Amino acid sequence: MDMDAFFASIEQLDNPALRGKPVIVGGQSCRGVVSTCSYEARRYGVHSAMPMAEARKLCPHGEYVPVRMRRYQEISGKVMAIFRESAPIVEQLSIDEAFLDVSGMEKLYHSPEDIGWMIKKRIAHEVGLTASVGLAPNKFLAKMASDMQKPDGFTVIRHATAAEFISRLPVTKIFGIGKMAEKALLQYGIVTIGQLAVAEKDILRKVFGKNSESVHLLAQGIDHRPVVAQSAPKSIGRETTFAKDLFTEEQCRRELLILSGQTGFRLRGKGYSGHTLTLKVKFTDFRICTRSISGESDICCDEEIYALAVKLLHGIDVSKGVRLLGITVSSLTDGASGTLGFEEDKRQLQRNEAVDALKKRFGENIIKRGSI
After folding, report:
1. pLDDT tens figures, 13-40
2. Which of 20, 92, 140, 273 could form a disulfide with 300 if both were Cys (CB 3.0 to 4.6 A apart)?
3. Is 353 a catalytic residue?
4. Which of 97, 255, 303, 304 is catalytic?
């Protein structure tokens, strides 16, 4: 199940004046990026992850609105609740899509198609939005099917005809095959998924390396991955693109302090701490630098995150201009930081929890550190 133009559709739902118009949701600064756009906007070539400045050139008369993540999360919660009430196993992929395993429901419904239509009708009636269904024997085919007839689509790929069904599609329809791999395959005359399915293994190894076997199976419509009800996150973090480039370490430290607070808030909110911190720096020329460091014990407090981020920043020359900064905490474990054996560490966590309580009630921007 995949919601259609989720963010933009919610904006049109909340503001009827936007319905039927090209709606572009994303950062409003000159460095902003399109998060989602309505299907009316896509006719002009606008798409997600596109720089907002480019979108404005393609669609100058569009309706440009900022991201309202709390509202999108609220609607996502309602949609996911419908999914979980309708299927025994639900694996949420993102804020607006999920895999539903309907095995074992044969005696409750006439067919799997009936389940898909029932869910679509519930979403339309209870939430006011449309969703696209991909019904298939496995996750790979179901995801592919869900994209085929958007918006408000319903595509079925059956086991007996799956290989033939996907054989004429371009190789880029397989997730993970980008422009570089497409170009490499073209040198061997491989353009479609069907050609990829019968390609020699030596060719696949040259192009995909250790992933060649899994790609070959997907090209045949085979995917053995199960639908997993709950998947713990591998990392939690935040990043931000600046309206103006940063050129000094002091400027970067200030932004890292903000990012540390945002990352810590999310870690504690989900009940995690982590062992490894990664700093991401994107420069003016779009070159990306990443550095990682592991703490002496698990971290979840803003102060701990900030200290490690600044330590990594010291070894990076930012004088040529920084376009983006990001912090990610990984190697996650359940529970609070392992440093709480000392009294100051306990007070530190208590301060963070007090700030978290304010943010949960009034929003993340209700309180900031004096140094910011």
Report:
1. 999 999 999 999 998 877 788 999 999 9
2. 273
3. no
4. 97
